[in-house]
Amino acid sequence: MVINKALLSAVALATIMIIIMARPSVQVTVNITNQLTQKILIVHCRSKDDDLGAHAVAVGESIHWSFRDNFFGGTHFWCKLAVEDKRISFAAYEAYFEIFTKWVVCDDGVYGQPDGHPSFLEAGWRRP
């Protein structure tokens, strides 16, 4: 029995499209909390389609935003954090790869927060 490679490729592509289209659109909320020692945190996050602008976040305060992942699951949000002369850039949300959507910014860097406690150092501070 000879299988046509083009037909096999078309069936595989159709199967992948059905799986992607069946994926439910889930509301996602990303949260970044300032737990620095007495310092204002500047947060600037953006995706390919949306620039959330720069925000000053006081100690103990948070910034958060909600969205629905795009149809093909390709939503990514990148954030730049600044305090005094230090900077951090990190992926706050990557569709299909998101581990954390809650982040805590501490004096030594930004941590993923799955259970209410900082547990995974995502990025450390650097000087420009």
Automatic annotation (TrEMBL):
GO terms for cellular component: extracellular region. It is found in: Secreted. One of its GO terms (biological process) is rejection of self pollen. Residues 1-22 form the signal peptide. Pfam families: Self-incomp_S1. The keyword Magnesium does not apply. Keywords: Secreted, Self-incompatibility, Signal. PANTHER family: PLANT SELF-INCOMPATIBILITY PROTEIN S1 FAMILY-RELATED (PTHR31232:SF156), PTHR31232. Belongs to the plant self-incompatibility (S1) protein family. This is S-protein homolog. It comes from Linum tenue. The lineage of its organism: Eukaryota, Viridiplantae, Streptophyta, Embryophyta, Tracheophyta.
